[in-house]
Amino acid sequence: MKNSKLQIGEQIKKYRVLRGMTQNDLAEKIGITEKQISKIETGVHYPMFENFVKIMDVLGVQMKDFDYEIETENNILRNAIFKILYRATDYELKYYSVLIRQLDRLFKEKRKM
Question: For the whole model, what pTM was predicted?
Fold first, then answer.
Protein backbone atom coordinates (compact mmCIF):
# COMPACT_ATOMS: atom_id res chain seq x y z
CA MET A 1 0.00 0.00 0.00
CA LYS A 2 1.30 3.45 -0.92
CA ASN A 3 1.86 5.98 1.80
CA SER A 4 -0.16 9.17 1.72
CA LYS A 5 2.87 11.34 0.88
CA LEU A 6 3.41 9.34 -2.29
CA GLN A 7 -0.31 9.36 -3.15
CA ILE A 8 -0.50 13.13 -2.82
CA GLY A 9 2.71 13.57 -4.80
CA GLU A 10 1.57 11.32 -7.62
CA GLN A 11 -1.71 13.14 -7.89
CA ILE A 12 -0.06 16.55 -7.91
CA LYS A 13 2.20 15.30 -10.71
CA LYS A 14 -0.80 13.91 -12.61
CA TYR A 15 -2.64 17.25 -12.50
CA ARG A 16 0.53 19.20 -13.30
CA VAL A 17 1.22 17.06 -16.39
CA LEU A 18 -2.44 17.28 -17.47
CA ARG A 19 -2.07 21.08 -17.39
CA GLY A 20 1.08 20.85 -19.54
CA MET A 21 3.27 22.27 -16.81
CA THR A 22 6.83 21.37 -15.86
CA GLN A 23 7.95 21.08 -12.27
CA ASN A 24 9.74 24.39 -12.77
CA ASP A 25 6.54 26.06 -14.06
CA LEU A 26 4.62 24.95 -10.97
CA ALA A 27 7.45 25.87 -8.62
CA GLU A 28 7.67 29.39 -10.02
CA LYS A 29 3.92 29.93 -9.76
CA ILE A 30 3.78 28.97 -6.09
CA GLY A 31 7.12 30.42 -5.03
CA ILE A 32 9.17 27.35 -4.16
CA THR A 33 12.03 25.53 -5.87
CA GLU A 34 11.78 22.88 -8.54
CA LYS A 35 13.65 20.57 -6.16
CA GLN A 36 10.89 21.01 -3.57
CA ILE A 37 8.24 20.11 -6.17
CA SER A 38 10.27 17.02 -7.05
CA LYS A 39 10.42 15.94 -3.40
CA ILE A 40 6.66 16.45 -3.05
CA GLU A 41 5.85 14.51 -6.22
CA THR A 42 8.11 11.60 -5.28
CA GLY A 43 6.64 11.34 -1.78
CA VAL A 44 9.77 12.44 0.05
CA HIS A 45 7.92 15.34 1.68
CA TYR A 46 4.36 16.48 2.23
CA PRO A 47 3.72 19.93 0.80
CA MET A 48 3.44 22.58 3.49
CA PHE A 49 -0.21 23.50 4.00
CA GLU A 50 0.21 26.95 2.46
CA ASN A 51 1.99 25.48 -0.56
CA PHE A 52 -0.60 22.74 -0.96
CA VAL A 53 -3.35 25.35 -1.15
CA LYS A 54 -1.32 27.28 -3.73
CA ILE A 55 -0.72 24.09 -5.73
CA MET A 56 -4.45 23.31 -5.77
CA ASP A 57 -5.19 26.87 -6.84
CA VAL A 58 -2.60 26.89 -9.67
CA LEU A 59 -3.66 23.44 -10.91
CA GLY A 60 -7.34 24.28 -10.64
CA VAL A 61 -8.15 21.33 -8.39
CA GLN A 62 -9.85 20.88 -5.03
CA MET A 63 -9.43 18.46 -2.16
CA LYS A 64 -12.21 16.33 -3.64
CA ASP A 65 -10.02 15.77 -6.72
CA PHE A 66 -7.55 13.82 -4.61
CA ASP A 67 -8.26 10.13 -4.02
CA TYR A 68 -9.26 10.13 -0.40
CA GLU A 69 -12.29 8.58 1.15
CA ILE A 70 -13.77 11.78 2.45
CA GLU A 71 -17.35 12.69 1.65
CA THR A 72 -17.78 15.32 -1.05
CA GLU A 73 -19.65 17.67 1.28
CA ASN A 74 -16.70 17.56 3.66
CA ASN A 75 -14.36 18.40 0.80
CA ILE A 76 -16.41 21.45 -0.11
CA LEU A 77 -16.30 22.62 3.50
CA ARG A 78 -12.55 21.93 3.75
CA ASN A 79 -11.86 23.86 0.56
CA ALA A 80 -13.88 26.82 1.82
CA ILE A 81 -11.96 26.81 5.11
CA PHE A 82 -8.60 26.40 3.32
CA LYS A 83 -9.37 29.41 1.12
CA ILE A 84 -10.29 31.54 4.12
CA LEU A 85 -7.09 30.55 5.93
CA TYR A 86 -4.95 30.96 2.83
CA ARG A 87 -6.19 34.49 2.20
CA ALA A 88 -6.11 35.56 5.86
CA THR A 89 -3.65 38.12 7.15
CA ASP A 90 -1.26 37.16 9.95
CA TYR A 91 -3.50 39.09 12.33
CA GLU A 92 -6.59 37.16 11.23
CA LEU A 93 -4.73 33.84 11.41
CA LYS A 94 -3.97 34.41 15.10
CA TYR A 95 -7.67 34.82 15.84
CA TYR A 96 -8.70 31.87 13.67
CA SER A 97 -6.13 29.75 15.48
CA VAL A 98 -7.52 30.68 18.90
CA LEU A 99 -11.10 29.99 17.80
CA ILE A 100 -10.24 26.65 16.20
CA ARG A 101 -8.34 25.49 19.29
CA GLN A 102 -11.26 26.44 21.53
CA LEU A 103 -13.74 24.65 19.29
CA ASP A 104 -11.49 21.60 19.12
CA ARG A 105 -11.35 21.42 22.93
CA LEU A 106 -15.13 21.74 23.16
CA PHE A 107 -15.71 18.94 20.67
CA LYS A 108 -13.19 16.68 22.41
CA GLU A 109 -14.88 17.26 25.74
CA LYS A 110 -18.28 16.57 24.20
CA ARG A 111 -17.03 13.26 22.74
CA LYS A 112 -15.86 12.12 26.18
CA MET A 113 -19.37 12.54 27.65
Answer: 0.61
The packing angle between helices 49-59 and 4-18, to 10°, is: 30
Its CATH class, for the domain covering 4-112, is: mainly alpha
Sign of the CA dihedral running 23, 28, 29, 31? positive
Residue 66 contacts residue 11 (beta carbons within 8 Å): yes
Closest CA to 57 of 67, 65, 68, 45: 65
Nearest to 30 by CA among 62, 53, 12: 53
Structure confidence at residue 1 (pLDDT)? 39
